[in-house]
Amino acid sequence: MRILGIDPGTARCGYGVIDISNKDGSLLWVAHGCNETDKLKTDAERLNRVFNDIINLIEKYKPDQIAIELLFISRNQKTAMRIAEARGVILLACAKKGLALQTFEYTPPQVKLAVTGYGRSEKEEVLNEVRKALKPGREIGLGKKSGFDDAADALALAIAHFHKYVEEGIK
Predict the structure, then answer these.
(1) pLDDT in the model for residue 140
(2) Domain boundaries in the chain?
(3) What integer pLDDT is reported at residue 58 of this predicted model?
(4) Which among 35, 64, 71, 151 has most CB atoms closer than 10 A?
(5) Is residue 24 flagged as an active site residue?
(6) 20 contact partners, CB below 8 Å, separation of at least 6
């Protein structure tokens, strides 16, 4: 089974792809990255880019299920609105590719709990657990500059969904 994790955003949209081994049920890193949009473009153009990027990721990696971050709490209303808009076009892309019923949403505390065992873990703890669980085949970088911040969140979403899938038997 292949899971695509998505950390939504209009400016930066992280993604991570993992496989669950049919042989022993272990997690296997496939890919990760961060798609960015041009700040000089209009909101509509940026959202269209996010939509097209997600369509391309689905076509390229052919996931069986998708895990996307659910907006939890945001103090900044402008940021919350942009993330909500990005989530909307991402969900639309999933539906367009026939994955509406295979798209699952998780809050950040749910992801942290599934990945580290503690719902209020620090970002660094989540990052360390992602690295331990997946052992990616190449250097994955650090922080926002390399895009791994967003990709790590997306990989954590995919891992959290894996745990939910295994523990609760989502089909």
Answers:
(1) 58
(2) 2-168
(3) 98
(4) 151
(5) no
(6) 1, 2, 3, 26, 27, 28, 162, 165
Write the DSSP symbol of residue 106. E
- Point out the catalytic residue in the list 53, 69, 129, 149: 69
Q: Which of 7, 129, 149, 153 is catalytic?
A: 7
Regions in the chain scoring below 70 on pLDDT: 73-74, 136-147, 170-171
What's domain 2-168's architecture?
Answer: 2-Layer Sandwich (3.30)
The residue with tokens 């909500």 is 84
- Whether 34 and 49 have beta carbons less than 8 Å apart is answered as no
The predicted pLDDT at position 165 comes to 80
pLDDT value, residue 132: 87
* CA dist 101 → 30, 72, 93, 114, 158 (Å): 23, 21, 12, 22, 16
Structure tokens that stand for 169 in this block: 């038997």
From the candidates 19, 53, 129, 150, which is the catalytic residue?
150
**Active site annotation includes 69:** yes
